[in-house]
Design a protein that fits this description.
4 helices; 4 strands; alpha/beta
């Protein structure tokens, strides 16, 4: 995981409130399991993205306030308060999404 320096506070805790704003790319299957772990950790989920809206519905229902996108490039362009991204897409697509998120 790569985090911008401003996300970490002076004492090493995240942000001013100790929270990291997380976005998910590829939130069906394994990505959905990853997002459930993020929820269990109590971190705010600020955006979700998956090309398959039907397959990702179960995960989207867990985060009804998070805007949903089908293109991660649109999500990254529109949502400005993302501190970390969980990528649950097939292995051969991680690099493109990770590079765009950084």
């Amino acid at each position: 995981m790569v985090l911008p320096r401003h996300v970490l506070g002076i004492n090493g805790t995240a942000g001013a409130n100790g929270k990291i704003n997380v976005a998910g790319i590829g939130i069906g299957g394994m990505g959905g399991a990853n997002m459930r772990h993020i929820k269990a950790l109590g971190q705010p989920v600020v955006a979700l993205c998956d090309v398959d809206s039907a397959y990702s519905k179960r995960t989207r229902d867990l985060f009804p306030k998070a805007p949903f996108f089908q293109d991660f490039r649109e999500m990254l362009a529109q949502v400005k308060d993302i501190d970390a991204v969980v990528i649950g897409t097939p292995d051969h697509t991680h690099a493109t999404a990770a590079a765009a998120a950084m």
